[in-house]
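--- STAGE predict ---
source: upstream dedup step, 1 unique chain passed
mode: sequence only
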Amino acid sequence: MSPWLAGTLTNLCLYIVVAQSWNLIGGMAGYASFGQVAFYGVGGYAVALLMLDASLSFWVALPLGACAAGAYGLLLGLPLLRLRGEYFAIATLVAAAATQALAAWQPDFTGQGSGLTITTVGMRQTTPYLGSGGFALLFACLAILSVALVAGVGRSRLGYALRVIRDDERLAGAVGVRAGATKLRAFALSAALAGLAGGASAFRLITVTPGQMFNPTITVLTIAMVVVGGAGTAFGPVIGAVLLTALTTGVDAILPSSRNLVLALVIVGAVLLVPRGLTRGGQPARLPAGPPPPRPTRRGALSP
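--- STAGE serialize ---
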């Protein structure tokens, strides 16, 4: 596999993972989060610090980094998930900016401008560098895992509860859904999945900086992929990721300065022309069928 093809496949699978993480809270629950990059960055820095300071193997640090991002999601979700609609979206955007600023103000942990460099050669390396082919395989496995996770959640009680919350949160309690706890679980799971992608990216980049790990373009791209493909479905973000990765790769090769403009036009066009995405996501939750109504007898009494 050529390095260019391996790099393109790696980027595609990376965006699938992050898009699926946003899909859990934005697609299934209907809570449009603009702070997904915060969890991506926390997972990346957690992996870098664990490999550098704790001398842990990448394969041990990666799940721990995902857990750190999930814990951060729980911490942020407690106050933020009390908000709804545009207030929640703005609050998550501010939270992501605050997280990046906090990382930049802690040079002992993040290296600030110079960043943190993970040791990949010599006696102090904890894990040999995977190379282009190795990272392509790693991110492909993570992408498959993310699709399987979202598909499993979609068929579970949690997925049903999230769709009920998305359709009408005020009536969720009437069908036995604990909205607060359900949203918090989904938000933490979403954060952990984003942190998993960030942790793998940190090892791939070797040197990580706040500007790389908290780049807001990551959030914009992933939301666009879910919107284009279809929110709330397992394969919608995959289709959106394939289309937008091909589009951005082509634009970068021809006219890279117009990339953001093209993305904006694609998002606006998708919202206007295919508001449910190409896979027609966002279908309402189906209430379970109840028992059939009793049949009346000839005297008007109800039969048992």
